[in-house]
Automatic annotation (TrEMBL):
Name of the protein: Prenyltransferase
Biological process per Gene Ontology, one example term: carbohydrate metabolic process
InterPro entries to which the protein is assigned, alphabetical: 6-hairpin_glycosidase_sf, 6hp_glycosidase-like_sf
Superkingdom field: Bacteria
Length: 358
């Protein structure tokens, strides 16, 4: 079956090492299918899906399907999810819009890895409800999407990282719709508006440029590509990249984090910059433990692990980055394949909203 062989990257990771990392993720999975940050930790819908994607890429398909079944069961009637669970109990009922949209990316990735159309059909109602919910929160004048709905109302601000991720998730949902022959023109319009906001209206988002994710996510998720994407990455490379250790999560803090490093690897892969991507993936291996799990980060000022936790989503990001660079599974291009010349210019938005599906 496609995707049954875990990725390997000679000189960086072996197949056995990637499988061991996937097994460390599966070991943390709870009996209902939820994948918490670590054993006994909380589960959020976004990182849960990221971990399910890694299980899929490594060939642990039963565990991946159990994770998606959990997503289907815990989805609310409006298409959203509570933002935090612990041991099956809701800890935070607020709906993070980006958390909700990411199911589409995970389902598309599973189908790309396995070719399982029945899975696509089964999960389609959940993806459709999730994306409809996300688009219902697109209330910014430039096409941005509000990030949070609480019991008391909707958060007024939009977040650049989250909106970039939702841009990608909506396009993954459109790819799934194409596969199933379901027209979704309103999603196409929403994606064009959102991509336009990410690319052309930085003032529409809360200022969080200290964080590396606001730097590379618009590239990772396809709003910036080609020379523009490379220019964006180069513009702050020295602010975030720390030699052979990885990248900072926050530009003025003395620690590097593995997941952000691997996501930058994926962003570089969308640009065809495989040399720097491979070097960074090799660099973050100092966070690896003997059981295949990964520490979240390292304070390079004193050499201490911080935070003192080995997170499933850090290992998951590593597996997905290794798959992208090794071109192993059918889903290895889950980000690269969407880094295309989508017209998100003002003129393109005015003239080409419909019929621009990737």
């Amino acid at each position: 079956m496609p995707g049954s062989e875990p990725p390997a990257l000679p000189g960086v990771l072996t197949t056995a090492q990637c499988l061991r990392t996937a097994e460390s993720i599966a070991a943390a999975q709870e009996s209902d299918g939820a994948i918490p940050w670590f054993t006994g930790g909380h589960t959020d819908p976004w990182d849960h899906v990221e971990s399910a994607m890694a299980l899929t890429a490594a060939g642990l398909l039963d565990a991946a399907r159990a994770a998606y079944d959990w997503s289907a069961r815990t989805q609310r009637p409006d298409g959203s999810w509570p933002s935090q669970f612990r041991a099956g109990v809701i800890e935070n009922a607020d709906a993070d819009t980006n958390f909700c949209g990411y199911l589409a990316t995970g389902v598309w990735h599973y189908v790309a890895c396995t070719g399982d159309r029945r899975f696509a059909v089964r999960m389609w109602p959940h993806v459709r409800a999730a994306i409809d919910y996300v688009i219902s929160m697109q209330r910014g004048r430039n096409g941005e999407i509000h990030w949070l709905r609480t019991e008391s109302g909707i958060a007024a601000e939009a977040l650049l990282t989250g909106c970039a991720s939702m841009f990608h998730s909506i396009r993954a949902a459109l790819a799934l719709a194409d596969l199933l022959g379901v027209a979704q023109p309103e999603w196409e319009v929403a994606a064009l508006r959102l991509g336009h906001a990410v690319r052309h209206h930085p003032d529409a988002f809360a200022v969080k440029d200290r964080y590396s994710m606001d730097w590379y996510y618009p590239v990772l998720c396809g709003a910036f590509h080609g020379p523009d994407g490379t220019a964006r990455i180069d513009s702050r490379w020295d602010d975030f990249v720390v030699g052979d250790l990885g990248i900072r999560c926050v530009d003025d803090r003395p620690w590097v984090t593995g997941a952000e490093t691997c996501e930058l690897v994926l962003a570089l892969d969308t640009l065809g910059d495989r040399t720097r991507a491979r070097r960074l993936l090799a660099a973050m291996q100092h966070l690896r433990e003997s059981d295949g799990s990964y520490w979240t980060g390292l304070v390079f000022a004193d050499g201490k692990r911080w935070p003192e936790e080995r997170t499933t989503w850090t290992g998951a990001a590593m597996i997905l980055a290794a798959d992208a660079l090794s071109r192993t599974t059918g889903g290895n291009g889950v980000f690269r394949d969407f880094a295309t010349n989508v017209d998100v210019t003002a003129a393109g938005f005015a003239c080409d909203c419909v019929g621009s599906r990737p």
